[in-house]
């Protein structure tokens, strides 16, 4: 990722879902960060934390809480054990650091209210940051309508952190549905507007659109091109094969793995102008053929030129595509029953890595992250 852009460098989480307040979860990020862990290690909870931040930046925190059913679902072992949760998000641009901190506390009516928000700005080498308390109405973030310079920068940065999950490839799922042409400004988090976004790229970014088609063709050898013809302001993900005839296939004729790959290719190969500042994907390898995972690795690396990419995975093949520096291992701490994280120690693993791949070390539980 280009060095003159703001980068997410660290997140600290306390009291959120599987993370205890006694043992905060601290994550350090680079251009590509791979969150590796077994089922139940807390990978999806980190994705959920970023989703919550996204809702907060649009003034929809209470909607996000309501969709989850109860505030107890957010607090580590419920409000009796954990009455509040907090987060600290740190960005860096050049020698400057910008930080956003907040605390959410349980309230009556199954709500979470904002009890504190703070932004800070600091130049490298300065002893103390310039810190500002953000005023809010407790229900929603005070950053939403704040005109302060640091506040606006942080809101913009957090608004461009997008979490994606393309798991629902069923016949009634979002990936196969027709979508309105006027919803094509960006790819939505579950691919609800996949067809209209591809239609937008085809008409405005021909080079990137053709690249997406070429990657799909590598996975589906008989795939020719998408057939994106609007009807009553809607467009469907229809397509043609390479036979040269006029038969049009419907999106239902893509396999589950194929349509997930199409969504991933569209997300990761889109133009820099439309790409989120940070792309967070939960288990993108689900349902993909091993050859498709090889292409996924390359697409992630390509996307990281313009955007930071965070991947939650338990795919041995996927982690072998990245360096040790990119991998963060997640597991459950026995004492606090909390998600903890550690980066891989290159020096400690120096001799191991000469004989084994990272995935082999994971299977042998040398690096942790396996079920206990």
In short:
It is built from ten helices and 16 strands. With 372 residues, it is α/β, with parallel strands linked by helices. Helix 4 packs across helix 5 and helix 5 packs antiparallel against helix 6.
List the helices and strands and how they pair.
Elements: E1 7-14, E2 25-28, E3 32-36, H1 43-57, H2 61-67, E4 84-93, E5 96-107, E6 111-123, E7 130-133, H3 149-159, E8 161-164, E9 179-180, H4 194-204, H5 206-219, E10 223-227, E11 234-235, E12 238-241, H6 256-268, E13 278-282, H7 290-303, E14 308-313, H8 316-319, E15 327-333, E16 338-343, H9 350-355, H10 358-363
Parallel strand pairs: 3-14, 3-15, 8-13, 13-14
Antiparallel strand pairs: 1-2, 1-4, 4-5, 5-6, 6-7, 9-11, 10-12, 15-16
CATH-assigned homologous superfamily of the domain at 1-160 and 323-372:
P-loop containing nucleotide triphosphate hydrolases
Count, helices = 10
In spatial order, strands of the major sheet run 2-1-4-5-6-7
User: Helical content, roughly?
Assistant: 25-40%
What features would you highlight for this structure?
372 residues, alpha/beta, Rossmann fold, six-stranded antiparallel beta sheet, 10 helices, 16 strands, globular
What do these coordinates show?
The protein is α/β, with parallel strands linked by helices. The protein has a domain of 210 residues: P-loop containing nucleotide triphosphate hydrolases (Rossmann fold). 27% of the residues lie in helices and 26% in strands. It contains 10 helices and 16 strands. The strands form 4 sheets. A 6-stranded antiparallel β-sheet has the order 2-1-4-5-6-7, with helices on one face. Helix 7 links the parallel strand 13 and strand 14. Helix 4 packs across helix 5. The chain is globular, with a radius of gyration of 22 Å. The mean pLDDT is 93.
């Amino acid at each position: 990722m280009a060095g003159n852009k703001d980068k997410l460098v660290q997140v600290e989480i306390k009291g959120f879902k599987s993370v205890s307040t006694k043992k905060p979860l601290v994550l350090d990020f680079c251009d590509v960060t791979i969150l590796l862990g077994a089922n139940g290690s807390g990978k999806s909870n980190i994705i959920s934390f970023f989703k919550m931040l996204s809702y907060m930046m649009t003034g929809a925190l209470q909607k996000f809480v309501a969709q989850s059913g109860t505030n107890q679902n957010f607090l580590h072992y419920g409000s009796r054990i954990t009455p509040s949760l907090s987060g600290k998000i740190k960005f860096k641009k050049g020698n400057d650091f910008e930080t956003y901190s907040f605390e959410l506390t349980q309230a009556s009516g199954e709500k979470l209210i904002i009890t504190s928000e703070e932004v800070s700005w600091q130049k490298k080498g300065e002893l103390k940051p310039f810190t500002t308390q953000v005023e809010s109405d407790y229900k929603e973030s005070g950053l939403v309508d704040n005109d302060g310079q640091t506040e606006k920068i942080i809101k913009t940065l957090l608004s461009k952190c997008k979490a994606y999950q393309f798991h629902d490839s069923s016949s009634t799922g979002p990936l196969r549905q027709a979508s309105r042409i006027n919803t094509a400004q960006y790819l939505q988090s579950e691919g609800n507007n996949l067809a209209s976004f591809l239609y937008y790229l085809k008409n405005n970014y021909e080079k990137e659109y053709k690249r997406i088609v070429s990657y799909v063709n590598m996975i589906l050898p008989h795939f020719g091109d998408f057939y994106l013809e609007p009807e009553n302001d809607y467009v469907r993900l229809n397509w043609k094969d390479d036979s040269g005839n006029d038969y049009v296939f419907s999106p239902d004729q893509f396999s589950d793995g194929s349509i997930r790959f199409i969504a991933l290719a569209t997300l990761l190969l889109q133009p820099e102008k439309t790409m989120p500042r940070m792309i967070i994907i939960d288990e993108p390898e689900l349902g993909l053929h091993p050859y498709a995972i090889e292409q996924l690795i390359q697409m992630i690396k390509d996307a990281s030129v313009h955007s930071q990419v965070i991947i939650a995975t338990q795919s041995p093949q996927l982690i072998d595509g990245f360096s040790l520096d990119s991998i963060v291992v997640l597991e459950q701490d026995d004492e606090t029953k909390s998600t903890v994280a550690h980066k891989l120690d290159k020096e400690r693993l120096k001799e191991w890595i000469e004989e084994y791949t990272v995935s082999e070390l994971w299977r042998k539980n040398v690096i942790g992250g396996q079920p206990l």
